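Weekly structure sync - notes
Attendees: PM, LS, DV (DV joined late)
Agenda: review two folding runs queued last week.

Item 1: First target. Sequence and structure tokens pasted below for the record.
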Amino acid sequence: MRTTNYMVYINVVPPIILDADAKKSVPGFNIYPNPATNQLFIRASSGAPATQFTITSAPGQTMISRSLTFEGQSVVGVNISSLSPGIYFLQLSNERTRTTATFIKQ
């Protein structure tokens, strides 16, 4: 009798949302333009606390991570010129909330 063993690998990838209106804004924040080329802007509602943001690629690799402070301003620009064209996830988090938005880098 002969037996054969098979190994199955499953790669789990976060869902990609292609709807143009999906996740353009997140509670308390708005990101624009979407799609973006070299600069992504994050607009915060008034009184937004200091926020950590992380940009990850579709496969889940962290590309950019840093903190944002909206001191006296409601819009902060993020340089994304080093990113390759594709779909990315922007995660915004502070001591109270964590939320994720999708954007496209052209």
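Item 2: Second target, run right after the first with the same settings.
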Amino acid sequence: MTDLAQSFEISLCNDLGMTQFFKSVLLALAVTVASTASHAHGFKAGDLKINHPYATPSLSGSKTGAVYIRSIQNTGKQADQLISARTPVAERVELHQMQMDNNVMKMRAVPAIELPAQAELRMMHGSADGYHLMLINLKQPLKDGDRFSVWLQFKNSGEREVTVHVQTPKNNAPAHDHHH
């Protein structure tokens, strides 16, 4: 084999090898990112799928915060309830319902949040009629980018630890202060 042919063959093999190598690296990276994203934001407890728990940054000087959950989907045939929650970042956690009453937004603690069978509940920031987890007596401010654990206690599905991501709401609405 001539030197030129041998050089071309090595170059071609290297080019093909590098292309295959980069394809493998990109595939591995994509699988890792997809796997991390699904584990970071999706959790299961029995028949419940808990999608994207998040908190809004706390306001300066505020001792309260709020945790929201994009959705809790009950795929089972039996209703369930979220009955309590706890976290190391606050002294206590209360289940709260927001409700419009004669054009006035009212918030009240509730003993449980119903999760009907074969249904999905959204607990989103800015919802007029919705739920959230109220963090009482924060031990430190919640800052954009922080992450912390919350343990959700369900009547039928038991307890499940979830990771909460602190993020500024996409609509850039300020986090509302939760003074009582």
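Discussion on item 2: Residues 7-13, 21-40, 172-180 have pLDDT under 50 and may be disordered.
Action: LS to circulate a short write-up before next sync.
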